[in-house]
Amino acid sequence: MEGEMRKTEQKIVVAVDESKESMDALSWCLSNFFSNNTNNTLVLLYVKPPPPVYSSVDAAGYMFSADVIEAMEQYGSEMVNSVMQRAESVYRNFETHINVERVVGCGEAKDVICGVVEKLKADTLVMGSHGYGFIKSKFDYFCRVLLGSVSDYCAKHVKCPVVIVKHPEEK
Is 70 exceeded by the pLDDT of residue 164? Predict the structure, then answer.
């Protein structure tokens, strides 16, 4: 019986950020997971980068005032609001009612995404594929070794299926 419920009511996590690729992934998710089943829950997950470690004097001897620190925190909040508003505009254009939850994490994206997916017991994780244009085409192996890939890491470490949606120009 529980297996049947899982098939009809799924929790789908979509990792969103400032990129067009993440909004493409959200659109793909809506078309493929929500067109026939409005019992699914869409979880929009945004991960803020970890705050910089700073003290009143940094390594170069510069002082960060409380105003600068507050401005950095304000910028982070504005970024969260901007991304969530963009995501909302994508799913509001969808023709059926969707159950939506918003989750904002802070830290290394790969670790936060995997942690949230596990905590929520998500059925599927959907992510956009971030291309790096010239860098990706010429130095893909080097970039992956040096920088890593959030989507690759998540695909290897979460327990649920992971869908990595390519940007239409990458297909």
Answer: yes
Measured CA to CA, the distance from residue 91 to residue 130 in angstroms comes to 21
- State residue 69 phi and psi, 5-degree precision: -60, -45
- Averaged pLDDT for residues 22-33: 93
CA pseudo-torsion sign 20, 160, 94, 167: positive
pLDDT mean over 136-151:
58
**Between residues 13 and 144, which one has the greater pLDDT?**
13
Closest by CA position to 94, among listed 23, 31, 20? 31
Domain boundaries, the chain: 2-170
Beta-sheet strand order (sheet of 162-165) = 99-106, 41-48, 11-16, 124-128, 162-165
Q: 131 CB contacts (<8 Å, ≥6 apart)?
A: 21, 167, 169, 170
Residue 12 pairs in a beta bridge with 42, 124
130 or 63, which is more confident: 130
**Yes or no: is domain 2-170 CATH 3.40.50.620?**
yes
Least confident piece of the model among 10-19, 64-73, 95-104, 147-156: 64-73
Record the tokens describing residue 3, joined without a space: 């297996």
